[in-house]
Structures are given as C-alpha cells and as structure tokens.
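Q: I'm building a small set of examples for a reading group on sequence design. Run inverse folding on the following structure and report the sequence directly after it, with nothing in between.
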C-alpha cells in the first residue's frame, strides 16, 4: 500500500484525511531484451520474457494475451447493497473504448446541490494489458470513491501494439470532451466538473500526464470541465540512457527487459527519448496554476525518471508535492508515537469491549452461474450459522471443460486483516483468491472466520489478561 496525503495537494477536496490505498500492482510481465543502450543492466538470461508476460507475438505484430484476467462487472442498480455504484458507457464504439463511472452510494442520500469532486482515472498495464473492468482497477477506483468521497470516471483506452501511442492519449482526450458534454445523470447531478483531477498509476500516470498537457493547451475546448491538477502514481517514463536504479535493480516483478519491451510495443518508433516516453512540456501547467502530486518508490526501476520529472516540474515553477517511499522503510523507519491506532484503523472501542468498524469495506459478491463470462466461478456456503461463519469456493472455469477424473489441487485460504478487519468477501481477498485459482490451476476454499472483538472473545481475553497479570487491560486489541 502506498500512503499519500491527499489534502496537501487536493485542497479543493475539502481537507480529506490521509488515505491509504493499495494502488495498482505492477503487471506480471516478462519480455525480450530491448537493446537500446550500450550500458548493461542485470538481467536473468533464463527468463522467457514472453512467457513471463503471458503474451505471444503474432505475425501481424499484434499480440495474443494468454492470461485470463478476472474482470468485475459494473453495478448500476441502486437496490444493490454495494457501497459504490458503477456503470459502463460507450465512448467510441468504432474504437471499442468506453468509460466506467463510480458513484458513492452516499451521494444519492445527500443534497444534489452539494456536488462531489471528479477524478478522471487511467489504469496501468504497460500500455498492453488490462482494462477498466479488470478487478484490480475496478476495486482500486471503488475504494478511492469511498475513501475520498469523489466520483471517478475510469477510461478504457486502446491498447498497444494493436494501437500504438498516441492512440491512448487520443482516447484520453476524447473522454475529457465526452465528460464536458455528456447528459449522463450521475455526472450531471452529482459531479463538480469545476473540480476535476486527472490521475493514473504506472502507464496510467504517463497517460494522465499527456492528457493533462493536451487539456492545458485546449482549456477553452474542455469547458465547463476545469482541471485542478494531476495525480501521478509511479508514472511510467523512460529514456535511452540507463539510470542507476535500472542498472542496480534486478526486479523479479518488472525486469528491465520487460520495461523495454513494453516501450517497444507501444511507441510508434523505437525512440526512447520520444516525448511520449520522456516528458518535456510543462509551461502551460504552471500558467494554469495546476497542482501536481507525484508518488513513487526507490525500489522502482523507473525511480530516477520520476525524480527527474519532479525536478523538471519544480524548475518550471509548477506547484507540486512529491512523496517517495523507501523500499526498506518498513524495516528501518522508527515508529510514530503520535499516531492514534484507533483513528488509523478507523475503529472505535465500545463499552462492552467490542469495536465498531467505521470504514466501509468494498465486498465482491460470488459468481456461481456457469453462464457468467468470468474465468473463475465462486459460491458461498454456510459453515456455522450460529457463529456466522461460511466459506467461499473458487473454481476455475476450465475445470468444467476437462475430464472430471483429472482433479485439481485444493488450497484452504485464510484472509488477513489483523484478526479484526475484512472478510472472505472483501474485494482484495476475493480478487487474490480468484487470481490464484487461475494462475495455479487450483480450487480455493476461502474461510470466513470469526473476527476478534466479539463480546464473548473480548470477555475471555480480559479474564485471561487479569488472571495472568492481575491488572485491567487498557485499550487491548486482538
């Protein structure tokens, strides 16, 4: 998870508290070496990059994406118990692009005259993978909509190499022009178009940056849409010269060869110093008074390029905030004694020793119907109704098509959450199990167990604490 202080950059977002989000994971890519530099970088010569990326290059220079990525369908029905409504709207049917809008349910219960800020969001995936319906992108946007009390428009842009850059940038601009003229009731009734931010993670950050530059030069054409700034999370930029982080890091998740190939497949020409790859134009952003937030990590092989972007923006006088985490910070950083753990966990301790969980956690319903296009079926089965425990079973669809005598291994899985938070239905747990079922070709039984801080559990813990210590427990959790 990456921590960033939203109110330091999004002042117009009504002083929102620090938000912890799990941003989009780097895509599980591998690819061939792209020899753009005489400098050498550490690389694993035994890795088949295409196999790692799970793509195949076709004779016509398109790719076949071999891995089935779990998607999450939208939930537009207000009667559905989800905390965030979502719906898909076609943007350009000839290009097969569309948008997914996320609306916090609470917006329906408030005075429509109090409108919510808008974030236009672009997902990651190396320009070549994933889409706006991918579960990891859907859940990320839904969680942001809850935590920041905002409306999100997530853009499904065209992927390379079938559509090389600047296709994605063109799609981004088409989305901005659509937003300014749309009659859609969610945006019309609940979105404050004068309080808009453009955001993206990884290559989505690259797209957000270039969409922002274009919008800055066409400011009159996108009114009444008023951009207030950019939010770039680990933005994906590069150049022909190898950086120290590229030479130093032998990243098993995003090897340098993978990074190279994604550029090779997405750029219109093999020029790593092309503007699409290496940002240059910033004067207009300064003149418009936009604010920019850049978040990164020194374990990223693109780290120096992100630092260079921040330096360039500051030299141009752009109003910005940058936050770069250390890959070792969790091991070396001293504890902050001023942090209120209850506030941080978003819980309150009740008089009877139980807790109230204040944060609304996004859940994913099971999909037991074989006619549903999901690559992984799932269903819930009660385990002990008196304890309100149950299990969720994940079955790869491919198992239905194989000989029933060839059975799959079984994993019994228990989710995290510090013993006190989340459930087997939490989207982060559901998606993790669904991905494992696909990648490992296994059946998974995810167990919904009793969380701590039930009344009975609390009384037992207090009794044991008093028995062994002779003292009354103070603010005991767990």
């Amino acid at each position: 998870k990456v921590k960033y202080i939203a109110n330091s950059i999004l002042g117009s977002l009504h002083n929102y508290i620090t938000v912890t989000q799990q941003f989009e994971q780097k895509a599980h890519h591998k690819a061939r070496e792209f020899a753009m530099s005489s400098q050498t970088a550490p690389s694993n010569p035994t890795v088949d990059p295409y196999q790692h990326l799970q793509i195949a290059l076709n004779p016509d220079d398109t790719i076949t994406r071999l891995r089935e990525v779990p998607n999450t369908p939208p939930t537009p029905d207000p009667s559905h118990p989800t905390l965030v409504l979502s719906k898909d709207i076609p943007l350009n049917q000839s290009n097969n692009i569309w948008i997914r809008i996320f609306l916090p349910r609470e917006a329906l219960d408030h005075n429509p005259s109090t409108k919510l800020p808008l974030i236009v969001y672009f997902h990651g995936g190396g320009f070549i993978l994933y889409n706006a319906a991918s579960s990891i992108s859907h859940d990320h946007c839904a969680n942001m909509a809850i935590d920041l009390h905002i409306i999100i428009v997530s853009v499904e842009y065209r992927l390379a190499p079938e559509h090389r850059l600047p296709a994605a940038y063109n799609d981004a601009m088409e989305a901005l022009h659509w937003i300014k003229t749309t009659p859609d009731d969610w945006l019309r009734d609940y979105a404050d178009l004068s309080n808009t931010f453009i955001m993206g993670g990884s290559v989505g950050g690259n797209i957000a940056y270039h969409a922002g530059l274009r919008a800055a030069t066409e400011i009159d054409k996108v009114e009444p849409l008023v951009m207030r700034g950019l939010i770039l999370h680990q933005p994906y930029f590069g150049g022909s010269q190898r950086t120290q982080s590229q030479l130093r890091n032998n990243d098993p998740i995003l090897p340098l060869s993978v990074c190279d190939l994604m550029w090779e497949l997405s750029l219109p020409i093999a020029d790593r110093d092309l503007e699409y790859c290496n940002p240059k134009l910033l004067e207009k952003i300064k003149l418009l008074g936009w604010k920019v937030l850049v978040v990164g990590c020194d374990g990223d092989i693109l780290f120096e390029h992100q630092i260079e972007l921040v330096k360039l923006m500051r030299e141009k006088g752009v109003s910005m905030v940058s936050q770069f985490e250390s890959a070792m910070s969790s091991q070396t950083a001293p504890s902050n004694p001023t942090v209120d753990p209850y506030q941080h966990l978003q819980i309150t301790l009740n008089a009877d020793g139980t807790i109230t969980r204040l944060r609304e956690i996004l859940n994913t319903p099971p999909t037991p119907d074989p006619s549903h296009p999901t690559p992984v079926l799932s269903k819930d089965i009660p385990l002990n109704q008196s304890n309100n425990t149950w299990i969720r079973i994940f079955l790869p669809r491919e198992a239905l098509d194989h000989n029933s005598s060839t059975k799959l291994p079984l994993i019994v899985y228990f989710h995290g959450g510090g013993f006190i938070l989340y459930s087997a239905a939490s989207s982060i747990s559901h998606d993790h199990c669904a991905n494992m079922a696909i990648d490992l070709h296994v059946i998974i039984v995810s167990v919904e167990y009793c969380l701590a801080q039930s009344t009975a559990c609390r009384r037992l813990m207090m009794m044991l604490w008093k028995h062994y210590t002779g003292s009354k427990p103070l603010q005991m959790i767990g």
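Residues 2-332 form a domain with the Rossmann fold fold (CATH 3.40.50.1820).
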